[in-house]
TrEMBL record, chains A, B:
Gene3D superfamilies: Phosphoribosylformylglycinamidine synthase subunit PurS. Keywords: ATP-binding, Cytoplasm, Ligase, Nucleotide-binding, Purine biosynthesis. This is Phosphoribosylformylglycinamidine synthase subunit PurS. The gene is purS. InterPro entries: PurS, PurS-like_sf. GO terms for molecular function: phosphoribosylformylglycinamidine synthase activity. It is an enzyme of class 6 (ligase). Its EC number is 6.3.5.3. It comes from Rhodobacter calidifons. The keyword Ribosomal protein does not apply. It catalyses: N(2)-formyl-N(1)-(5-phospho-beta-D-ribosyl)glycinamide + L-glutamine + ATP + H2O = 2-formamido-N(1)-(5-O-phospho-beta-D-ribosyl)acetamidine + L-glutamate + ADP + phosphate + H(+).
Length: 79, 79
């Protein structure tokens, strides 16, 4: 089965990449963009077929490798 | 309104970051991960309130800045 992990910086954490995108969009003439945050998305193909076990495994992967939980939050979706 | 753009490398394009994650997960003892692809997610706060116009604007942003459409595909969701 497939899992999709979305990792975003937590809301209080400065996101210079997002700010750079916001400025670049303004320079290109796209008005009305009031905020931009950039994060990562990681799509995993898993051999596991049980949804509950797959989610537990993916959450463990997030805690140990995929996200820095001090500054990032993550969301797991099974697809 | 908010829009979420997901940018992924197209399926034929080599994804070294995804491969690195797959190897690292294997080294940490997570078996059964058969494939990993990494992409970007960009969350935009828009002043626009009409969903159709917002989607048109965000697609234009993707074509001009957010995605390299030669090697990347993008998906727009309004949230």
């Amino acid at each position: 089965m497939k899992a999709r992990v979305t990792v975003m910086l937590k809301s209080g954490v400065l996101d210079p990449q997002g700010e750079a995108i916001r400025h670049a969009l303004g320079s290109l003439g796209f008005a009305g963009v009031t905020g931009v945050r950039q994060g990562k998305v990681i799509e995993l193909d898993l051999a596991e077929t049980d949804p509950a076990q797959a989610e537990t495994a993916v959450r463990a992967m997030c805690e140990r490798l995929l996200a820095n939980t001090v500054i990032e939050s993550y969301r797991v979706e099974l697809v």
